[in-house]
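Cross-check.
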Amino acid sequence: MDDAGASASRPEEAARSQTHPFQAEVAELLNLMVHSVYSETDIFLRELISNGSDACDKLRYESIARPELLAGADRFAIRILPDKATGTLSIADTGIGMDRQELIDNLGTVARSGTKAFLKGLSEAKEGAGLIGQFGIGFYAAFMVADRITVTSRRAGSGEAWVWTSSGGAGFDVAPASAEQAARVPRGTEILLHLKEDAKRYLEPFELERIIRSYSDHILFPIELVDDKGEARQVNAASALWQRSKSELKQEDYTQAYRSLAMAFDEPALTLHYKVEGRQSYAVLLFIPSTPPFDLADPIRKGRVKLYVRRVFITDDADLLPAWLRFVRGVVDSEDLPLNVSREMLQNNPQVTQIRNGLTGRVLGELESTATKDAEAYAKIWEAFGPVLKEGLYEDRERRDQLLALARFSTTAGSGMRSLEAYVADLKPNQTEIYYLVGESAERIRSNPKLEAARARGIEVLLLTDPIDAFWTVMPQELGGKKLKSLSQGDVDFGLIPLLDKREADQPEREAAKQDDEALIASVKAMLGDTVSDVRASQRLTDSAACLVATAQGRDRELERLLARQNRGGVTKPILELNMRHDLVCALAAAHADKREAEAADIAFLLLDQAHILDGEMPSDPAAFAKRLNALVVRGLRAG
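Predicted model, tokenized:
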């Protein structure tokens, strides 16, 4: 078959032929494709068929408003032609096609926000091909099996066809199509792969049919395989699986549909397949993956549920689920929405709002059912998607109680994940609140001194380690009448909950010492000045000397640190809490009583700096901290 060079032989066309460099990210991606070996190279065919299906979908949608684009040829299909004589494989579609600029834009750049992360994952992953398709760059998977690719395309309604050619190096050529090439592509796109020697198995019809049936059987358009006699036969079911009865389908059908829709290799953890009939009619096929999609943390935070209207693809950007369910994949096919529905109409259409509410409720209901019937399966789902679901605790006030019931937490009670229902069932007598701490890791929180008094009383504490935890906990939350309470914010009173080792014998002595404590606290506050907002005796500490907490009306200190790192607000002055029984605090009291003000000030600032360090922060003045620490150590050594 001719390639782009043939057309450039004519002077008037040579002037329009140009060589273009690849975008830097594409060049890096192609280098990985060409020089790496992946076990799942079959994926290239799935990606190219999927692209062809998208092109047919786009034309079918555009032709609703502009029927002339079909120009009497209203049949949509994807045709695959292996040619053993030339060692080439052709994948052609009768879809929307591309003009010259679209070829340059679509096949020369990667314009997704997650490209850098994708490339990093692709270069590090042993099964890198499994990541392809999740960032809209499936076309480049073809370079795993081809050393040269020629793309001929004619946009629907255009009289001009163009050819894109590349060998996967630094760039690509774009030129007008030759007469023969233009005749082969009256509309749509033909991708011609010059296969590598070790990829010639993709010229075998049985191999191609196996891949199509495995990955693309549910593509809605006919996929035709041309044999060596030039005869074409359809090899896919080409039916809307979501419109079929559940009784007709097997788990393998759902798995294949999931992998085709989600462009994934894992098994679906949950499948929702149902129809809604009545005031609105629509079919639903949704999947919850078993592993997190690679773009789960994409800042755009959009879902990937495709919207169809009467089997016509409309968009995958309809926001049919809230952002905190963006890991769900699947299809919604409406019988009622207009085919020419626009994005603006989707945003304001009450029918779409009802569908969105219905889908959200069904997904949450399925999660609740799984949590009740199969705790092990639900634990895996929560491990994969819990941090995303917890975004709903912050964003969706109406469903907050439902999401709280679904939430699972690490706690001080053990290594497993616990529900709030289980936590409340195990409350200590006289315990009126659900206690929690927010931090960067469970190990770090477990060593936090703010846990000491709770641990001494056997009180279970939630260990919150996801970044979103610092945000959703600022909203009023409660379960079973028990409010959530941070151990790093406001007052904490464990007075009615007894210590496990009954250490209450010295209470009268402590009552007598309160007056002296108040005088010492006032003195420390004067020494520290405006470095803290207050100083007070701690109810949180049993072993450590001091800790820092936030005011009841302020932000949790972990949230303040997160916002400060994003330049979204400063850090307010903390409250310093002192363990009045601790030896260092007692030494401070003695220095204060003996009028050794310099020594007392050194100890006071040392306690403050120590509390900062225990909170994972640097002392405000590291040099002064070291100087004070050295002075106290030397003083102690001399006294000894």
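Residues 77 and 222 are 5 Å apart (CA to CA). The two ends are 94 Å apart (CA to CA). Passed to J.P. for a second look.
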